[in-house]
Amino acid sequence: MSRKLFTFLLSELKTDRIVCKKCKASSEMTLTQLSGKENVWCPACQADMESKPSLAKLAETIKSLQNPTAFDVEFVLPDDEPSGK
Length: 85
Fold this sequence. Notes:
Helix content is 20%, strand content 24%. By secondary structure, the protein is an alpha+beta fold. The protein has a two-stranded antiparallel ribbon with strand order 1-4. A two-stranded antiparallel sheet has the order 2-3. It is flat, with a radius of gyration of 16 Å.
């Protein structure tokens, strides 16, 4: 039995998509744009889509880990679909 995996390096991440839990609309922005935001509002229903200032801190942390000298950060997303499909 084999499993498919989707992997990507943190350094490859350029754009974030923030999805509103209230109406499911989304907003995409670069890490630089997100790190400069004080508030992120849903483009459809205007709900506040962040726990201030966690999204900006997340973007800054990701940016700081994208160019380390001693390591790379890789994310692995498993395909949990049964292998018979």
